[in-house]
Amino acid sequence: MFATRHSGFASPFGRAVLVASLGGLQAFITVLAGLPAAFPVPIVVVQHRRSTSDGGDALAAVLDRKIGLPVRVAESGMPTQLPGVTVIPGATTATIEPTQCWVLTDESRDRRPGDAVLASSAGTAATIAVILTGYLADGAEGCRVVKRLGGRVLVQDPATARAPSMPSNAIATGCADFVLPLERLSTALVALAVAPGAADLLTVPLPPWARLGP
């Protein structure tokens, strides 16, 4: 299992992936600002948004001002295991090679960049999926892959989401380990990533109706 080392403790998780759509900026800030500057697990942020023509990335710029972790924008060939937060550019589908490097392509027609990152991440490192506010169902299929490959799934309580569809669809898979108010997700992330034994303790048996396969 991929392990990230922190203060002598090897985290069982190699990556955390946060997925959101409408209302995602504030959700990202709330979760990421609650993490310590020494958070040991690399974080990926994916949001449904348009590409920019000026070469900048507004989401990355805002996060860089608001949180205490280093922030960068993903580029093809860049290592995925850099500390801090990696932002996937708008209108982009990102996947991870076995060499732990990013591959970026123009967004596919199905517009499910969260599923693409989650499935790819789970195949290369034990992953914590965090599904936040947004319309439609992006992230739901990715949650199934994450859970099937030994990761954990955290979902924002739809009652606290600006757009509840993405969290609701993730919950409907039966793969959510915890459904939490937005402001408590950072605490759960820290517990899973840093506390010895928490990954085994903080898991919920799948209901009999859950479907992990495609």
What are the salient characteristics of this protein?
214 residues, alpha/beta, Rossmann fold, 11 strands
Structure description:
- This protein is an alpha/beta fold and 214 residues long.
- The chain has 7 helices and 11 strands.
- Strand 1 and strand 2 (9-11) form a beta hairpin.
Please provide the ordered H/E string of secondary-structure elements: EEEHEHEEEEHEHEHEHH
Mean pLDDT reading: 90
CATH class, anyone?
Alpha Beta
Percent in strands? 15-25%
SS-based class? alpha/beta
CATH superfamily: Methylesterase CheB, C-terminal domain
What is the topology, as strand order, of the major beta sheet? 5-6-4-3-9-10-11
- Coarse shape: globular
Give me the Rg, rounded. 15 Å
CATH topology: Rossmann fold
Q: How many separate domains make up the residues?
A: 1
Spans of 5+ residues with little confidence (pLDDT < 50)?
none
**What is the helical fraction, as a range of percent?**
25-40%
Task: Describe how the helices and strands are arranged.
Elements: E1 4-6, E2 9-11, E3 15-20, H1 24-33, E4 43-47, H2 58-66, E5 71-73, E6 85-87, E7 92-96, E8 102-106, H3 113-124, E9 127-131, H4 140-148, E10 152-156, H5 165-172, E11 178-180, H6 185-194, H7 198-201
Concise overview:
The chain has 214 residues and is of the alpha/beta class. It is built from seven helices and eleven strands.
